[in-house]
Amino acid sequence: MVDRYLEDGILDGRLDAGDYDGNFGDAHPPLDAHEAMVAADRCYFCYDAPCVTACPTGIDIPKFIRQISTGNLDGSARTIFDQNILGGMCARVCPTETLCEQACVRETAEGKPVQIGLLQRHATDHAMSHGRQFYSRAADTGKSVAIIGAGPAGLACAHRLAMKGHAVVVYDAREKAGGLNEFGIATYKTVDDFAQHEVDYVTAIGGIEIVTGKRLGDGLTIDELAKTHDAVFVGIGLSGVNALGVDGEDDDAVANAVDFIAELRQASDMATIPVGRRVMVIGGGMTAIDVATQAHLLGAQEVTIAYRRGREQMNASEVEQNQSTSKGVNIRHWMKPVEVTRSDSGSLFVKMEYTGLSGGRLAGTGKFQTFEVDQLFKAIGQTLEAGDALAGITLEKGRIKVDESFRTSNPSVWAGGDCTAGGDDLTVTAVAQGRDAAESIHAALSA
Amino acid sequence: MADLRNDFAGIKSPNPFWLASAPPTDKEYNVVRAFRAGWGGVVWKTLGLDPHIVNVGGPRYGAIWGADRRLLGLNNIELITDRPLEVNLQEIKSVKRDWPDRAVVTSLMVPCEEPCWEEILRKVEDTGCDGVELNFGCPHGMSERGMGAAVGQVPEYIEMVTRWAKANTRMPVIVKLTPNITDVRYPARAAHAGGADAVSLINTISSIVSVDLDSFAPQPTIDGKGTHGGYCGPAVKPIALNMVAAIARDPETASLPISGIGGITTWRDAAEFITLGAGNVQVCTAAMTYGFKIIDDLVEGLEQWMDNAGHADLDAIHGRAIPNVTEWQYLNLNYTTKARIDQDSCIQCGRCHIACEDTSHQAITNMIDGERRFEVIDEECVGCNLCVNVCPVENCITMEQIPSGDMDKRTGKPVADEYGNWTMHPNNPMRDAAE
Ligand SMILES: Cc1cc2nc3c(=O)[nH]c(=O)nc-3n(C[C@H](O)[C@H](O)[C@H](O)COP(=O)(O)OP(=O)(O)OC[C@H]3O[C@@H](n4cnc5c(N)ncnc54)[C@H](O)[C@@H]3O)c2cc1C
Ligand SMILES: Cc1cc2nc3c(=O)[nH]c(=O)nc-3n(C[C@H](O)[C@H](O)[C@H](O)COP(=O)(O)O)c2cc1C
Ligand code: SF4
Ligand code: SF4
Ligand code: SF4
Hints:
The structure holds 2 protein chains of 2 kinds.
Chain A: E1 10-11, H1 19-23, H2 33-41, H3 50-54, H4 61-69, H5 73-83, H6 87-93, H7 100-103, H8 105-110, H9 116-129, E2 144-148, H10 152-163, E3 167-172, H11 180-183, H12 194-203, E4 208-212, H13 222-228, E5 231-234, E6 240-241, E7 254-256, H14 257-266, E8 275-276, E9 278-282, H15 286-297, E10 302-306, H16 318-326, E11 330-332, E12 335-342, E13 348-358, E14 361-373, E15 375-378, E16 382-383, E17 395-396, E18 399-400, E19 413-415, H17 427-446
Chain B: E1 6-8, E2 11-13, E3 17-19, H1 28-37, E4 41-47, E5 61-65, E6 71-76, H2 85-98, E7 103-108, H3 114-125, E8 131-135, H4 149-152, H5 155-168, E9 173-176, H6 185-193, E10 198-201, E11 205-207, E12 210-212, E13 217-219, E14 229-232, H7 237-249, E15 258-261, H8 267-275, E16 278-283, H9 285-290, H10 294-309, E17 337-341, H11 351-359, E18 367-368, E19 371-372, H12 386-390, E20 397-401, E21 407-408, E22 413-414
Parallel strand pairs in B: 3-4, 3-16, 4-7, 7-8, 8-9, 9-10, 10-15, 15-16
Antiparallel strand pairs in B: 1-2, 5-6, 6-14, 11-14, 12-13, 17-20, 18-19, 21-22
The complex binds flavin-adenine dinucleotide, flavin mononucleotide and iron/sulfur cluster (3 copies).
């Protein structure tokens, strides 16, 4: 064990160099051919299958699993991509335990669902690693569509529009496409630069130009795009971060979880990322879980997630929670931060108030406890942040309001993914919305 | 504990489970392992006259599988033993000497000439084995040389060769029948007429199990070519059961002992053969799939079932199902059933619905008041049992008899309480003039 493991402060290289690869390796290794056959054999080929209903992109699951068991892996992948061109990423990041696999009749029957996610990965990995492209562009329609945001929503929208023969330009503020697939998803869910491979796979259809380093609101306006293109799709996700609203949160040792994760995802050597020995995370969603788990994997000795409500209210699924606690993360409930101060020794003191329900509402109890930590992460939710750039487009609860075909209040602007109201902040939902928005745009452009 | 001791055509064994003539019984080494494991008897892999035959040097098996790659059907292009006659005879002798309480029967296939049979029978008798089985069954290879199924498909030959065998040995003679015929009663009658002490069936069914889609050649493929082989294993059990029952029900052969063979894998399969008239059973594919240890479950399962049901010995179950096998025309057409779904065990896979909806009688719902729910519509259900067969949960769907007098909602008529079959049915143009 290296000396730095037990040292207070925010330090890099807390672990032996060899430990990082293991820690950040594939969380759910792929099925080999035999395992896939055995897993596929368990599918009953249900009628009007509940798993399909539970999949936000409506992949024909019994069909693709049957194709695996009959040895038609290419066909299987195509079945998946027909509904979800990011089926490879979704196979890795979907919380299947609350989606398809929860609905699987074999979950009902034996408490052991068919391994839909892993089977989906088996088929899509096969097709992608063999460079199988199933779609080609329809004849050029002469129309062009601007897409803002190259995340799952934007990419799915772009692919479907390209299939229809429209010319697509995707603008993204970051230096790389992929959105949170590239900058947010936990490292061990998407190893080996999969997000970039997938961007390449999706754009290989042709007719999609990706322009990085272009931010809406920064030399790029909706009005201008609407003039130069026939339609605009907004898929900018949520780039703002909620503040704790407590004294001391601007301390250097207090960081946004999403920024930390983005840094981690881009690091070529995990040992270069500094992390505290004692780390506290405020929040209860997937981001809180991911930052806590990854901090721990970086060598943070004591990691605690503090959430203001109970276990059941946490946005992170039980499976996600268990995965992080099994790795050594501690989850505390019913407490919220009230003040952050710096001690003489350089540690942070995070003063927490215990919470409870009073008349059905969350309330402080007047009882406090202070934690001494090296680093504090904020993971209490992201917000839509586009400033004036979205002026003229109606928002709802702080997100873009869309109709059932994902059109905004501006008739030439569509939106999908996390930036819209009513989603569930999942990759797969963003894909479904981007795809469906593309169908709506196509219908409008063909009218 | 139920008494499983078996006396088959005068051949005694501690239980009714014999290994069929095939690779498991090709050598002393295998047979000794089988006896150690507890098998009641063996039919030694078929012997022929020297020079001994040769087998292909490439693959000799092909298969079909069910879910989880469970082997359901096995196909082979193996011939009879490919070891010198003398070696086999010595081993048979030694095994019988060391295992006097087990049945050792020798399977034979020689050309259709009496001297050949005379010669081999004399040699086999010297081994002290308990009986012989005449292999008139092999559908491949040997049949092209005028043996095996080539004999078994011609009742006159069966009768003739059986007569030769009986004339040249005092040992019990079992005639092994091929299923590759249209009506198995004819070869069975021929064997009976020739003086056979028993018949055994079925041998393998002529088959091509699969085609390699890269080379466009049947499998197993030998240097780019394939040939038809013999099919066996769980998939053939229904065919074998039907043939066993046909012989057991035939007045001409009703007294002829039958050794039941074909797809027997579990004690339940074996019990079914015995109730349809088999005096004992022979097993090949199940042993080739799982090894000899399955004998434990065969023996203990049969014993346990017999104990639970109060059957003291094999005679108590032998042939018990025969009186209940009849012709379609005698089935009671007034007997009415409806499917019933146990909602507590239903896992909502929808297979019953789609099977009935797409291919049968549109008698199972998939949605009730906007909720996914599978219920039988009595007005449509013809009681066909398809849903029971496709439901993945055993006993989730059952067939319930509608008592006579109650309304059959499909026909809108009460269920008649008297027996009424096709021969009496008004729609039958040739119905018995009963009035
Ligand atoms: C830490 C973390 C972990 C997660 N883990 C999972 C998981 O395991 N499984 C799961 O299903 N979901 C997970 N999610 C949620 C999932 O990542 C999102 O729901 C999904 O990425 C939303 O896709 P999107 O296309 O709407 O937005 P994003 O993926 O956020 O993409 C938006 C894109 O728009 C760009 N952009 C933003 N503003 C502008 C602008 N003004 N101009 C130009 N471009 C702009 C961004 O650079 C980005 O590329 C996680 C989220 C986080 C934060
Ligand atoms: C590889 C193989 C070789 C066989 N060889 C013989 C044989 O030499 N003589 C014979 O009478 N039957 C032979 N059979 C047929 C079996 O004895 C048996 O009749 C048939 O396999 C059906 O039983 P099962 O379904 O239990 O396998 C052979 C079967 C197999 C699979
Ligand atoms: S619910 Fe489960 S068993 Fe049924 S089709 Fe879907 S994966 Fe297969
Ligand atoms: S018994 Fe036949 S007709 Fe009746 S519900 Fe079942 S499948 Fe349909
Ligand atoms: S097949 Fe069986 S388990 Fe499936 S829906 Fe029908 S009754 Fe239920």
